[in-house]
Structure to design on (328 residues):
């Protein structure tokens, strides 16, 4: 990276970077500051596990310019955390939040998971109530996805727990509860108090350029998406040879751009402009696209000021709607 690069946001994530401790986080930010002016960056986020947040690390984060912390709390209910095989407790979650707030970091996101096996809507409401009482300005809510060879996958395989398939009901519950408590449902999985939207994540959803640095990191530059080497040794070898350490690159053509605009734009509460679609499709394709819009209009989406806006029902069935819209 050349020096004096203007950077809008910085996101330190891709796992749990907080685990490396305050000294290495300090070194990382110091190194980044040799390439750009940190004070000009609008948002500097770091992901963290609640159990990693100590008073010292919170002080260090504030001192070096971290402006936003994203905590993977998952739930504020003890039984839910045990089902998810998390080592943090509701007490750990609350302590981490208060420690950050006491050290002047108030822009906090909390990741939560819903549709958890052996859980209840009461547990979910309990989590939402506790977070709103703690004055959390941003909440990301994700339906449970089960990956192979994870503890929860093994429990399911052994019949110890069963999936609930309560996604639709709990998605609506979260939307209604947080909307009533002053949050804006600005993206399918994200809620914020006014002024606390994630500037960095909006870069992804708006298809703006971003640079991915580090093993496995992804980026989007000059209409090209790339992923860095997932193997540390190969990553270091390429860097030592002064070669960009990417293992995968994809040039985004008109078809792929159209698909991305629909897929990413439908995630946002302000949707996407029809004009952005029209210039990428031929006359026949655009006619088919308009027919699809008419089919879904007023139920799954609405059209305002020449923008395609998802409805709440459209978000609930977004996988299906997006798949249909791009099939032209």
């Amino acid at each position: 990276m050349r020096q004096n690069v203007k950077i809008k946001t910085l996101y330190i994530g891709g796992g749990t970077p907080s685990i490396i401790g305050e000294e290495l986080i300090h070194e990382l930010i110091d190194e980044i500051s040799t390439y750009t002016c940190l004070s000009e960056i609008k948002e500097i986020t770091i992901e963290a596990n609640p159990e990693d947040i100590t008073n010292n690390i919170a002080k260090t984060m504030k001192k070096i310019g971290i402006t936003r912390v994203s905590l993977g709390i998952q739930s504020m209910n003890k039984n839910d955390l045990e089902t998810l095989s998390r080592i943090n407790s509701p007490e750990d979650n609350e302590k981490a939040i208060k420690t950050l707030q006491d050290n002047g970091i108030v822009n906090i996101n909390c990741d939560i998971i819903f549709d958890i096996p052996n859980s209840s809507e009461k547990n979910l409401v309990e989590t939402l109530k506790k977070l709103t009482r703690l004055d959390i300005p941003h909440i990301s809510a994700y339906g449970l996805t089960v990956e192979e060879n994870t503890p929860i996958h093994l429990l399911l395989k052994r019949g110890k727990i069963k999936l609930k398939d309560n996604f639709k009901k709990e998605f609506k519950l979260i939307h209604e509860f947080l909307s009533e408590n002053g949050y804006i449902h600005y993206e399918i999985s994200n809620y914020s108090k006014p002024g606390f939207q994630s500037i960095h994540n909006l870069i992804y959803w708006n298809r703006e350029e971003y640079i991915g640095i580090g093993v496995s990191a992804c980026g989007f530059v000059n209409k090209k998406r790339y992923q860095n080497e997932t193997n540390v040794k190969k990553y270091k070898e390429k860097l030592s040879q002064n070669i960009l350490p990417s293992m995968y690159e994809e040039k985004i053509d008109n078809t792929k751009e159209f698909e991305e605009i629909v897929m990413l734009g439908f995630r946002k509460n302000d949707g996407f402009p029809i004009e952005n679609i029209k210039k990428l499709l031929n006359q026949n394709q655009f006619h088919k696209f308009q027919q699809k819009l008419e089919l879904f209009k007023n139920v799954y989406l609405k059209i305002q000021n020449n923008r395609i806006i998802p409805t709440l029902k459209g978000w609930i069935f977004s996988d299906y709607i997006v798949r249909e819209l791009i099939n032209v």
Remarks:
- The mean pLDDT is 92.
